[in-house]
Design brief:
heterodimer; A: Aconitase, domain 4; B: 476 residues; Aconitase, domain 3; five-stranded parallel sheet; 16 helices
Chain lengths: 207, 476
């Protein structure tokens, strides 16, 4: 996982609510067996027409946003299907951070596992950022994860909250499994107790 | 596992949570996962990553898997899967065999949709933590379990550690009281709940469904309700286990047996929420006021009663909501103010992890006996599992469907997410018993109306979104 420190780039305003993971990565791309090649999948049913030709009116196809790396969206971003492919599609297309008033729970969990910084801010703040992104197209934004702040091109610095563990994992690009396996002894102890107290949970499924 | 005693009254969810905390780090808990069920769609990358890092699967003998997302539902001897789907199924065979995980594959008579098969086999148990790389894992919460969907990275994490890091979600209580009117089922209740809570209203919460209406629901109806909890944005939905739960579980292949059954039961009886347990949010719903529901838009909260009209965005005060409604109406090809009963459909889909169980098929079949699918409508029934299919055939439901002009298919996810070759064409409109009416869900530019099995049956007979009990145009 690529570490996330300071991100500089263009912000894409897309103030729709409930942008679901079916839109972010339509089902036809879920048949891939690899974790790569998802850049074309992002919003593909909205980005391309039925013949695979770019729809010029869709924001991700329009300069300067087609080079954007920050997406500002509405409520409940990433709701729906658990497909982590939606995060891979965003990151591989070039979006490393999404700012929204709220996120789907599973998406939020998936984002940190695939190196995407999801920033939750009050709706009024997000609306102001959308406005700024619309009025200053192509201007350079900065997102400083260590200092937990967004620097829009003109407005004031916007601080954001993030869970310290998530922050550390994003900053270092840490493998969560390696971190968890440091608790191997506690897991072993939990299992030993459960096997004793609830052996039926351990029944083998081969039957 | 028996709940431990505590001074503070706890909810069902609190008890399950407390019993599964392995350790803590700050506010995050390392939560033990009892049950991990797999399907071919969300696992290949997890297995590859595991292989690359040379890690083993912890306790593979306690996991199980099915093939459901990509499998064709037409005659499998005649319709081969696409090359990509075939590769995905082969990868699943190879990976699960290498790591020693039991699967019900395309040749197994017990194969079916992951959230139908787990309960059917007795794999889903009260008080347990159940995960699967699929958001509708919430279905299993009907057993009084904490059951939730995870992404591929976390599938890998559970493989390697049997745990997940989580912040504890908040408790929400949805209390439903009273008798459901005739023609109103668990699906209508689920859509009504989502309409009330909103698609983001459950975010960060686990919803416990309780109240006299819920106690009266069968296990299959409870599964339909918990299945849709994710559509209200909730992390999970659950229902306290009771005699209905225990009767359903008793004697299933993987359920506890003998002395274990008695021990398990004693523990499960301590799971229901304590009197005075606190909820962060409470929503109350009167069952008797509910009507058969249908969605008109592109999120599951965009619902109205079947005898209602398509809402007018102009009446909506919130500008963001107003423009979303306008966009949804445009996508759906509908006019504000038109009667829902005037909406004509081209397709009817009965199936999915929401409504692909035996009771669902019975509810639909009871309306169509001796009648015929309307001209110009393609109607398919896709049983949730091979066992559901076999039961339905044995009790004559399959014949009723076939004689009425429905296609009777083999089990799988099928037209719920349309990645197995069952797909709608642009502009086609479907009355569907599935769970998501998102743009493009059933095919590019296809239009989905979420309904109950009874309403789907009525739609098939009339070619319209007809009231499932009303005496109109051929519907009973």
């Amino acid at each position: 996982m690529t570490p996330f420190t300071v991100l500089a780039g263009t912000a894409i305003p897309m103030a729709e609510n409930n942008i679901d993971t079916d839109q972010l990565c339509p089902k036809q791309h879920l048949l891939r067996l690899e974790k790569t090649g998802f850049d074309r999948a992002l919003f593909s049913d909205r980005r391309f027409d039925a013949n695979g030709v770019e729809r010029p009116d869709f924001i991700l196809n329009r300069p300067p946003w087609r080079d954007g790396s920050i997406l500002i969206a509405g409520d409940n971003f990433g709701c729906g299907s658990s497909r982590e492919h939606a995060v891979w599609a965003l990151v591989q297309w070039g979006i490393r951070s999404v700012i929204a008033p709220s996120f789907g729970d599973i998406f939020l969990q998936n984002s940190v596992n695939s190196g995407l910084l999801a920033i939750r801010l009050p709706k009024e703040t997000v609306n102001a950022l959308v406005h700024e992104a619309e009025s200053e197209p192509g201007a350079r934004w900065m997102i400083d994860l260590p200092a937990q702040g967004i620097l829009p091109p003109r407005g004031e610095r916007v601080p954001f909250e993030i869970d310290p563990t998530r922050k550390e994992r994003l900053l270092l690009g840490l493998d969560e499994i390696a971190l968890t396996l440091r608790h191997q002894r506690e897991i072993d102890a939990f299992e030993a107790r459960q096997r004793r107290e609830a052996p039926w949970l351990w029944r083998a499924t081969r039957f | 596992m028996p709940a431990t005693s505590s001074e503070r009254p706890r909810t069902l969810f609190d008890k399950i949570w407390d019993a599964h905390v392995v350790t803590r780090s700050g506010d995050a808990c390392l939560l033990y996962v009892d049950k991990h069920i797999l399907h071919e769609g969300s696992t290949p990358v997890a297995f590859s990553a595991l292989r690359v890092s040379d890690r083993r699967v912890r306790h593979p003998e306690t996991m199980m898997g099915v093939i459901d997302h990509t499998i064709p539902t037409r005659d499998r001897n005649l319709v081969p899967p696409s090359a990509q789907a075939k590769a995905m199924m082969e990868a699943f065979h190879r990976d699960t065999s290498e790591y020693g995980i039991t699967i019900f594959d395309e040749a197994d008579p017990r194969q079916g949709i992951v959230h139908v098969v787990g309960p059917e086999q007795g794999y889903s148990m009260p008080g347990s933590v159940i995960v699967c790389g699929d958001s509708h894992t919430s279905t299993n919460g009907a057993f009084g379990a904490f059951a939730f969907g995870i992404g591929t990275s976390e599938v890998e994490h559970v493989f390697a550690t049997r745990t997940l890091w989580r912040h504890k979600p908040a408790n929400m209580l949805v209390r439903v009281d009273g008798r459901l009117p005739d023609g109103v089922g668990a699906k209508d209740l689920a859509l009504a709940v989502i309409g009330r809570v909103g698609v983001a209203g459950g975010t960060g919460h686990v919803i416990e469904f309780a109240g006299s209406t819920i106690w009266m629901l069968s296990m299959e109806a409870r599964m339909t309700l918990c299945n849709m909890a994710i559509e209200a944005g909730a992390r999970a939905g659950l229902i306290a286990p009771d005699e209905v739960t225990f009767e359903y579980l008793r004697g299933r292949p993987l359920a506890p047996a003998g002395l274990d059954w008695d021990l398990a039961l004693a523990g499960w009886r301590t799971l229901p929420s304590d009197e005075g347990a606190a909820y962060d949010r409470v929503v109350e719903i009167d069952a008797y006021a509910l009507r058969p529901m249908v969605t008109w838009g592109t999120t599951p909260q965009d619902s109205v009663a079947l005898d209602g009209v398509v809402p007018d965005p102009v009446q909506e005060p919130d500008p963001a909501r107003r423009s979303a409604m306008q966009r949804a109406l445009e996508y759906m090809g509908l006019e504000a103010g038109m009667a829902v009963a005037d909406i004509r459909v081209d397709h009817v889909f009965i199936g999915s992890c929401t409504n692909g169980r035996l009771e669902d098929l019975r509810a639909a079949a009871s309306l169509i006996q001796g009648r015929h699918v309307a001209d110009g409508v393609t109607a398919i029934v896709v049983p949730g599992s091979g066992l559901v299919k076999a039961h339905a055939e044995a009790e004559g439901l399959a014949d009723i469907f076939r004689e009425a002009g429905f296609e009777w298919r083999a089990p799988g996810c099928s037209l719920c997410l349309a990645m197995n070759g069952d797909v709608l064409q642009p502009g086609e409109r479907c009355a569907s018993t599935s769970n998501r009416n998102f743009e493009g869900r059933q095919g590019r530019d296809a239009r989905t109306h979420l309904v109950s099995p009874a309403t789907a049956a009525a739609a098939a007979l009339t070619g319209r979104l007809a009231y499932p009990l009303a005496d109109q145009d051929g519907a009973r």
